[in-house]
Amino acid sequence: MKTKIKDLPVVKNEFYEMMIDDLGNNGEGIGKIDGYTLFVDGALPQEKVKIKVIKVKKNFGFGKLIEIIEPSEYRVEPVCAIAKRCGGCQLQHLSYEGQLKYKQKKVQDVIGRIGGITDLKVNEVIGMEKPYFYRNKVQFPVGSSLDEHINIGFYAMRSHDIVTTDKCYIQQPVNKDIIDVVRDYMIHNHIKPYNEINHKGIIRHVVTRISHHSKEIMIGIVINSSKLPNGEELIKRLSEIDNVTGIFININKEKTNVIMGKKIKMLWGKPYITDYIGNVSYNISPLSFYQVNPVQTEKLYNTVLKYAELTGNEIVWDAYCGIGTISLFLASHCKKVMGVEIVPEAIEDARENAKINDIGNVEFFTGKAEEVIAEKYNEGIVADIIVIDPPRKGCDRELLDTIIKMQPKKVIYVSCDPATMARDVKILGEEGYEVEKIQPLDLFPQTVHVETVVGIQKIESKK
Ligand SMILES: C[S@@+](CC[C@H](N)C(=O)[O-])C[C@H]1O[C@@H](n2cnc3c(N)ncnc32)[C@H](O)[C@@H]1O
């Protein structure tokens, strides 16, 4: 049954002037007209704007930005010509100083609202000196426009329309050469892009990963087929691009939004790239997680190291360890690190990475962190410190329950979603742990995302 909306202070298709007070989770401006909340894409806090109301719901509505009457002191002209259309960056119209303030406030708000912690000031966000061209990994969707032109680029904001660009300001310039080669190859060989509506066509995504230090490039072509037609031509041309060291296909025949399937076939070159963080060298294979901003990752891991306050005697769990990056970064400062990760290929990388760095005091387990750490606890294995770095959905409750039983003296929570981190921190807070310090870091400049390291310690009286 349709709800009848009456007595709202705004009317659809009418124009209004309003003040913007805040930024939402997707970087949209938020303000109120007579207590009624409106979301306005492109507007910034402290701006007076003219809007057209385009959608009304019972408790909130949406406005289209028509005019900025009084701009924010943090408003800047986006460096990228397609910043407004492309969904890759949401905050290019906000100065970098403004972005860092927004991210600090975002973490402070959720830690209070969801985490229930109102008496601790979140540290200032650690930002980048040069907040552009930082990404080491990109996954370009491939599609076609109505005139059958092949589009390889980024999804537009809140849609699956592909926006193409000659220059993206947050990723590596060489990606343009790679995309041009793939597009040429497709045209020349009459290869159709994948169509997600009728599930026809072959090429779904072009994926690249580039090492910050060695500059090695690995290219992946995600296909809705078992074979790449006339693949030799593509391999030849891609392998001629400077620093390309590996090319693979990833077979993904599922009707899904998940980009990569489980099957990788190397077509040419090495099955991994090598990068460094601090003094540790890492081999990274195509299906393994690796942080996308190498410059900031080193600061992130140094923050984890600082918050762990290791003396050399500790046993450490690194839960959700990926290719063992944090485990190996901490290993020389403690007695032993155990890492656990769900992706088997990442654990193979982690074990290989321990070998190439000659690090002997680490042990890696494949499986779900919540299951493996609980099993080991039942066998009598306890840690002094647990580092948790879960995906966006946060920690499984079973893992938190094991931590509470195990009683490590510190938990270091690394998070890419402050809301789920705050939810999990609240659970630990109710069971004898307290948050000591919260350090956000900007791993994703120009976007709304923020990484956070939280230092949590066992309350002495509960020892
Ligand atoms: C945010 S990444 C962190 C990886 C690593 N700590 C790093 O800094 O590179 C989260 C990792 O958790 C893994 N993962 C997801 N669910 C998991 C689970 N239930 N148990 C163990 N690992 C999981 C993912 O495959 C991914 O490698």
Automatic annotation (TrEMBL):
It comes from the Bacteria. PROSITE patterns: SAM_MT_RNA_M5U, TRAM, TRMA_1, TRMA_2. InterPro entries: MeTrfase_TrmA_AS, MeTrfase_TrmA_CS, NA-bd_OB-fold, SAM-dependent_MTases_sf, TRAM_dom, U5_MeTrfase_fam. This is RNA methyltransferase. Transmembrane segments: none annotated. The keyword S-adenosyl-L-methionine applies. GO terms for biological process: rRNA base methylation. PANTHER family: RNA M5U METHYLTRANSFERASE, TRNA (URACIL(54)-C(5))-METHYLTRANSFERASE. The active site is at C416. Belongs to the class I-like SAM-binding methyltransferase superfamily. RNA M5U methyltransferase family. Residues 9-67 form the TRAM domain. SUPFAM superfamilies: Nucleic acid-binding proteins, S-adenosyl-L-methionine-dependent methyltransferases. Keywords: Methyltransferase, S-adenosyl-L-methionine, Transferase. GO terms for molecular function: rRNA (uridine-C5-)-methyltransferase activity. The keyword DNA repair does not apply. S-adenosyl-L-methionine binds at Q291, Y320, E341, D389.
